[in-house]
Amino acid sequence: MALVCLLTPGLAAATDRFVAKTGNDGTSCTDSSNPCLTIGHAVTAANASGDTIHIGPGTYSEQVSGAKNISFIGASAGTISDATGATVVDGSPHPAFTLTGGGALSDLRALGGQTSEPTALELDGPTSAPGVTYTLAGVIGVRNDCSFCRTLDVQGGSSTDPSLLTLSVSGSSFVSTDPDGTTSFVNQANANFVGSSFTGSGSDVGGLLMEAGTLTFIDGTIGAPGLGGTAEVAASGHATFARARLSGLRVDGNFGQSDAAINDSLVDASEFTTALTVVFGATLNARNSTFVTESSSAQAGADLEAGTGGDAVVNAVNSIFRANGNAGAVDVKLADGGGHTATFSADHSSYTSMLTGGAAATPAGSGSNIAGPPGFVNEAGGDFHLAANSPLIDRGAPALPGELDLDRASRALSANCGAPVPDIGAFERVPAFIPPCAPTPTPQTAAPALSHVHMTHKRFRVGSPGAARAPRGTRFVYTLSASAKVTITIERRAAGRRKGRRCVKPRPGLRKRCTRYVRKGALSVQSAAGQSSVPFSGRIRRRALSPGRYQARLVAVNAAGRSKQRRLNFVIVKR
Known about the structure:
single chain; mainly beta; 34-stranded parallel sheet; 7-stranded mixed sheet; 1 helix; 47% strand; globular
């Protein structure tokens, strides 16, 4: 077991260093053909913040810690259940990474735990300026058996200035393997999660606790039905959830006013008694979301409790609150206390039973709200899409520009052309047939904007090998502000050498390493305004791309100009 310390930053230029299980620690790690054996040696050799350490596949039983800003890039993180071919940094029984100076982690797997209260990834911030930034992409963090441990622990140094620690996470998963504790804790930081998940393999595992800072959580999952796991915002926390799947949500202002917004999301708390809890100086604004608990122990879809910490407020638009399976359960429950009030305000929303205790609440079925069963496809089975006969179809408030439901479908799919009306809840029902609308010609006076660009699979195969593990092919998905021709250029990642400002093919006399991209072909398609998707099999002009790392560059062009170019990285595997 090696303990790695990152020393005070030096003045030398940033350098790429390489580590592999076939390497040796008698080198400076700067030659990819003669790598180091351990991460520790590469870190010791690093002489400046900004260095990048490339780590090959295999398991490295090391603990990386210190204050230097370094990027660690692995070969792969594998999947949650399979570490084949992955770069694994195993710090057990301590954290794999304990960093205090910022940095980046990508395409690797971090293991920690097995003693009281450690983590797999511990990221800390300073008490004063300048701040630090951490970036995680394609990381899997796993906390081994350990009660009250965390997979990801983020601790800023200033409760008055959480911007001193900035965290950006994409395409990552954090997993706990014990039955207690919180999978992750973000404290005194500004954090942004996209396409990431917090899950566990035990029962009643924790999800994500956020305090004293800001959080955005988009296109991700916290917990899982049957396994538990909740999201909690507390102690002067401010959070926004969008297109999220949660197993419970709690907003607690008892130790500092806290608030959250949740849009186009599902809170399925069938493992617990209550889907949404808002207490003691907390506010939640909900839009296009579904809060449901379906079990014999169900108590409330939403529970608001005011107390000595302050008021409890929920403002809901186009949302569903439902508690079912227990005769004593109510959809909305409120309680005043400590000289403070609980307030539930709803517009174009669905709920029926209420227990107000004299607190202020919009009555069920009043105004634009709808009482009665919401009409889910399979409520007992956990499918909370709207059935064809649901009374909530086309009964929502007007959609906002660009709104997508939890399945990323456009809102108001079944409405007429003149007055789009969305459904109520997290899911928009997609009709079997959408009547065509006569297009209104509009001059192309502005260049198209290309947004919400992603791939359905960033790791896939070409063809049909036996015992295939990876999905076959992928789709490019994007949204256009106006009709345009979209060109997708496919390039393969390759080694290069620096010549001036260019990265060129390796040749004698050029020593500075760089990464270049070799063009393999392009796809072009004419797309209308709105969301579109383009299938990609991994073949260009019938020629299959070889396994390896690639990037796709997307750009949209019409008569008024061209969009900003978007880049996506992906991997083609053998099977």
